[in-house]
Q: What sequence folds into this?
């Protein structure tokens, strides 16, 4: 009987670990946009936005919301997977061409439910962000209006210090998925 109990505990522990590492990959998303070999999938989940971004790269992938111009003032989330470990950075567009960590600029890290994987030349990162974090380095995301989205990915190197290989920008209504 004792071995059966240990076996059940092992199965529960494995299942919990699997669900934590797979995170948002098990989830279905309400909307998807594909541009320049990058996918943006999302679901508005109450006061949060559940996101999965993917790109044809073994480097980093990133997404930003509501820049005032180019990258300036955007809430930017970047991520990569190295040796099976997911690294994510919550950043703020400090100029048209640069960004820095929210925490370095006096803001807060507001990204939760982080997961990721790298397979067959693709990097996939999933996470949740609040629609309105109250953070001075995050502009509120209005789901029923037009949201400007910027996306980019780095070529083949797992580092946030490499420049993007490809980038794009589009406008979308996050409630309806209409561009």
A:
């Amino acid at each position: 009987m004792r071995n059966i109990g240990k076996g059940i505990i092992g199965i529960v522990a494995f299942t919990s670990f699997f669900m934590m590492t797979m995170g948002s990959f098990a989830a279905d998303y309400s909307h998807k946009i594909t541009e320049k070999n990058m996918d943006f999938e999302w679901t508005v989940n109450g006061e949060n936005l559940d996101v999965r971004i993917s790109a044809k790269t073994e480097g980093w992938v990133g997404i930003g919301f509501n820049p005032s111009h180019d990258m300036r003032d955007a809430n930017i989330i970047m991520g990569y997977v190295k040796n099976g470990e997911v690294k994510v950075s919550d950043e703020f567009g400090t100029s048209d061409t640069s960004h820095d960590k929210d925490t370095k600029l006096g803001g807060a890290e507001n990204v939760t439910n982080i997961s990721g994987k790298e397979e067959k030349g693709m990097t996939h990162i999933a996470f949740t962000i609040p629609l309105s974090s109250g953070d001075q380095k995050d502009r509120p995301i209005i789901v029923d209006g037009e949201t400007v989205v910027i996306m980019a990915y780095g070529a083949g190197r797992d580092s946030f210090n490499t420049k993007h290989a490809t980038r794009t920008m589009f406008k979308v209504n996050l409630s309806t998925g209409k561009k």
